[in-house]
Design goal:
By secondary structure, the protein is of the alpha/beta class. It has helices at about 10-20, 40, 55-60, 80-95, 115-125, 140-145, 150-155, 170-185, 200-215, 225-235, 240-250, 260-265, 275-284; strands at about 1-5, 30, 45-50, 70, 100-105, 130-135, 155-160, 190-195, 220.
């Protein structure tokens, strides 16, 4: 049995789809705070169970029979370590034989503010006694594709990454990697630094967007403070605006770059080019 936490999230759903290509639905357990939102997967034969990071009592029952578990990191910044600890403790109690955790690229040395909670979670795993594997995910190209509409509206793609090179990949690429680890053998103890095959600057991203949209879109580099203020002005919650601005500023110094090609090696195909993600976003 393979369990997926946060299965109703964007990454979780893609992992489910990747698993269903090779694994019988009856051998998959989709865990979510509200399993009713996974009704479409239940109809396909997937086990759906309630699992709330903030209610540890729900986790023990949710993990019964689970042999391999994907712990998709929580999105609740500032609360993630306690939430992850609850899942790890439940996994120990349930006798889980392998826990895969979605960390962040180069978590041990990263200057990203969001890396701290990942480092603390990795430390918990190291002392847990559980067999584990770290999937240190790089940036999702969709994080930038989400800004395409306002960029086209204003003729400007804003950020604070300067000329930093960003080796992002599509969210589905990272989901495919998780599925490979969960269905294969010999991954325990491995640390995978996962990133896209090709790196780009935000100026290049904006130029590609302009080309494909047939519009004028220039990259406008702002200070971290001004970029965060712009994101707040656009209606983003303060924690998310701060995270994105910090991540862009860190990207200027290489925090989102990696050229080891471990992701494409793991999924046995090239990662999705950022140009393709832009093209797909424009079709929506």
């Amino acid at each position: 049995m393979i369990g997926i936490t946060g299965a109703n999230g964007q990454l979780g759903r893609l992992v489910l789809e990747a698993l269903l290509k090779t694994v019988p639905a009856t051998e998959i357990v989709a865990l979510a705070r509200d399993p009713s939102k996974l009704a479409e997967y239940a109809a396909r034969g997937v086990h759906t169970r309630s699992a709330d990071y903030n209610t540890p009592a729900t986790l023990a029952a949710a993990l019964v029979g689970v042999e391999k578990l994907l712990l998709i990191s929580s999105s609740e910044i500032g609360r993630r370590v306690a939430q992850h600890r609850a899942v790890i403790d439940a996994a120990i109690a349930a006798g889980v034989q392998l826990l895969a955790y979605t960390s962040v690229l180069h978590a041990d040395t990263s200057t990203l503010a969001l890396a701290q909670e990942h480092r603390e979670t990795e430390a918990l795993l190291k002392t847990s006694g559980l067999p584990y594997v770290l999937l240190r995910n790089g940036w999702y190209t969709e994080n930038y594709a989400a800004s395409i509409a306002p960029a086209l509206q204003h003729g400007a793609f804003i950020g604070s990454a300067e000329d930093g090179r960003i080796a992002s990949a599509a969210r589905a690429d990272y989901a495919a990697a998780a599925a490979v680890v969960l269905t294969g053998d010999g991954h325990a103890g491995h640390v995978y630094e996962l990133a896209g095959d090709t790196a780009y600057t935000l100026a290049a991203f904006a130029a590609e967007l302009a080309l494909r949209a047939g519009a004028t879109v220039n990259y406008v580099n702002l200070s971290q403070h001004d970029y965060q203020a712009a994101l707040l002005g656009a209606g983003l919650p303060e924690p998310l605006a701060a995270l994105l601005a910090d991540s862009d500023a860190a990207a200027a110094n290489g925090a989102l770059f990696d050229d080891s090609h471990q992701l494409s090696a793991l999924i046995n195909r090239p990662t999705t080019p950022y140009q393709q993600t832009i093209a797909e976003a424009l079709k929506r």
